[in-house]
Amino acid sequence: MSVAELGFWTDGAAKSAILRFVDRAVADVAPEERVAVFDNDGTLWCEKPAYIQLDFLIRRLAQMAREDSALTAKPAFRAALEENLAWFGDAVTRHYQGDDSQLEELAGAVLSANAAISVDEHATRVKAFFEQTTHPTLGRPYTACGYAPMIELLRYLEAHGFTNYIASGGGRDFMRPVTGAMYGIPPERVIGSSVGLVYRDGTLVTTAQPEFFDDGPVKPVRIWGRTGRRPIFAAGNSNGDIEMLQFTDSGPQPSLSLLVRHDDADREFDYTAGAEKALGLADTSGWTVASMRNDWAQVFCE
Amino acid sequence: MSVAELGFWTDGAAKSAILRFVDRAVADVAPEERVAVFDNDGTLWCEKPAYIQLDFLIRRLAQMAREDSALTAKPAFRAALEENLAWFGDAVTRHYQGDDSQLEELAGAVLSANAAISVDEHATRVKAFFEQTTHPTLGRPYTACGYAPMIELLRYLEAHGFTNYIASGGGRDFMRPVTGAMYGIPPERVIGSSVGLVYRDGTLVTTAQPEFFDDGPVKPVRIWGRTGRRPIFAAGNSNGDIEMLQFTDSGPQPSLSLLVRHDDADREFDYTAGAEKALGLADTSGWTVASMRNDWAQVFCE
């Protein structure tokens, strides 16, 4: 991987903006303040046709429904049994469009799916899923669905003294078991949504109570809670990343806010649903837009 | 500072246990899993005659009461105006003894004391306090009230590949502005109690809503939330540290749980209030007890 030259990036405005920003940061920002935050779904790894975590949860819901047929009366469990992925994807898209009714139905099922187990058992389930599951249309393991240019960018920032964090709406404890191998980001630098945990007899046990939904205006709050710093670099791809991108570019230091645009039906997917407002704001806010089709020489690692 | 030999520690059981544990950890535990957590009040810095943060809050409450005399009808504001430190200390001691009534009165006042300001303004207030205030009986700046043997221990653990975190019931955003200079611990490794923050127009603003009281069984939950790891070293001094010490010594790796005992009226303070249960459990749990009088050659840095 040609980290030194961002070889997976095509020469153009996005690559130039990144290189220029990193030069300025190295010149003007103390290393401990070179904090970079990355959304995960759609920014570091593929989020279509459905979130990877939804596939994990759907398989678990289907298993629960097979073990207890009474559950099939509930739409989320029925959709899981019928492998109706669109029902799940719709719930999240509608959330970003302002309609939360289907998301609430989904959330109840999701929160019950891995409740009342230890955090170690949860990590074991996540690892087993990633070892056994491939992407439904791309035909590659989920662990190979990270974007090569973005992983290269993580290394490039690190090589210039940055510390990278994930700040995702996805589940913190769903990402942590694989972010080290996929992105070189250790668990202590993964910020995400979470369910409540309780301490019991020397271990931590999952509950079915939501703790954080790490999205929208919650992202800057959680980034501060975890780091005590304002990032100088942020990358996202959806309306849920707007406040994180704004928080990053509102500080006194040089900063770069990067928005990934999914416009490559040949190599990945082409969609703007759930990102309409963010793409509109990019123009007026001076954010850098990375077009997957035009700015990325390669999408996935070999 | 003779980090290599823990020179601020007297030869004895506590020092031997630390040296033996670190040797084992270096031999048997991967560096990224060498996570150490430290309580702050009474473990890293002096907590008597009252918590340092209480002094900060009392000064702020007194200022508010001087500006609005209606506030003097409230016990906490009246105690602040009258410099009645004992009222505040009692509230916390009673909490550890199971009576929360006075703590609730205190909490309401405390939560209002720094509400509706930006996190940057909050940090400015904290820094000003530490620059201007000395300990009421020890006659040294609060910034010099850290325990020399514990700061030496932080460096010793670091020198052996450990990553140190603070996990304190004290305020996260109260500690962060000074932990770098006092302990060499950056803000991203400070875990503590917090009030809710809201994102507004590019900045984060404090609220008067409590978020976490990072104490007792909440400590292991927050340590996991922040690090995704089970520590292998923990140091505390009160009943509020019991679950953190248990969580640390319940894992599969070599571990050390250290309890600081305040038994040195000549050089610091002599008290067990709020630590009775922890000191009792130390015997039955195999925790290492560090007697300030017997195990520390020196208490404070010069």
Automatic annotation (TrEMBL), chains A, B:
Family matches, as Gene3D superfamilies: HAD superfamily/HAD-like
Any Pfam family the entry gives: HAD
InterPro entries named in the record: HAD-like_sf, HAD_sf
Domain of life the protein comes from: Bacteria
Protein name: Haloacid dehalogenase-like hydrolase
Species this protein is from: Mycolicibacterium chubuense (strain NBB4)
Source taxonomy: Bacteria, Bacillati, Actinomycetota, Actinomycetes, Mycobacteriales
